[in-house]
Amino acid sequence: MNQKSIFYLLFTIILLFLLGNISTTDPTEPNYEFVPDMVHSVAYDAFSENPNYKDNKTLQLPPEGTIPIGFLPEYLDGELTLENAGDVLNNPLLANEINNERGAFVYHNFCSVCHGPTGAGDGSVTKRGVPPPPSIKTEKIKNMKDGELYFIISNGIGNMPPYNVQINRKDRWQLTQYIKTLK
Length: 183
Ligand code: HEC
What we know:
By secondary structure, this protein is an all-alpha fold. It contains six helices and no strands.
């Protein structure tokens, strides 16, 4: 062995020794962090302990009565029912082309399977044993107050399921407008 190879051999042994020392085999211990820089944030993490609060938690419960964004109740003075919805809820949208087109889009995605493409009550499921719903291209629907229709779409009626979870508020108002235009 020449001098050079002895040097490399020694160098490798020392390197392995050093690496063996700085890394740990204990799975409960963090390993060596090479250039940690910003790995540990200065701010408190959501689930870290926090001595600034009495209960020592960083994530605090919101104050009582807090309403999450997008969950503002639609009616604040009591219970909303099929009977009062028409009088207390007002359609916030303008009856224009954009709202109508969106209403049509949502109608064809969610409603036409039962109510049919034109609202006649002949949707595809009615050909497979589901009892057909009544026609919704009637004077009755056209004369209904927007709030009442909106309530029916949101909460369902009879065999019709509620759509307040699947369809957002704006889309439901657009639907309300659209179904009044069905001819
Ligand atoms: C699963 C089938 C089904 C789907 C999907 C459905 N409906 Fe209905 N709908 C019904 C049935 C059945 C009725 C009749 C309920 C009753 O009076 O017992 C009804 C009733 C209605 C009424 C009241 C009709 C009246 O004369 O009183 C409206 C308005 C209405 N649906 C609109 C919609 C809209 C808008 C959608 C889409 C979001 C929709 N429906 C989706 C089955 C459905």
